[in-house]
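Task card 7
Instruction: Convert sequence to structure tokens.
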Amino acid sequence: MVVTGWISEVQNQRRRASEVLNAPRPQRTARMSPDQIADMVGQLGDIVTVLDEADPEDLAEIYRQLGLRPTYHPEMQKVRVRAQPVADSHGKPLVSEAQHSA
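Output:
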């Protein structure tokens, strides 16, 4: 009885993995030109100054909403930033397996 349940669970996992791997991928948008990138950066304004002067709690929330996880390494005097987008390129929220099973 236990083996039958385990086999069924493994088959379901395999089926889900196959569905994910075989799902159609969203079409990539065309690459931006250097002028488009410069325009976008210009539209952001002086974001560096804004972030530099932000309250630490506000900055933490900004990073959280952008899906950024900065970690300071004092021995190297460097910050490592890990990007974990909270949505895909279509704005659909991403759900990790851990969040899904919780």
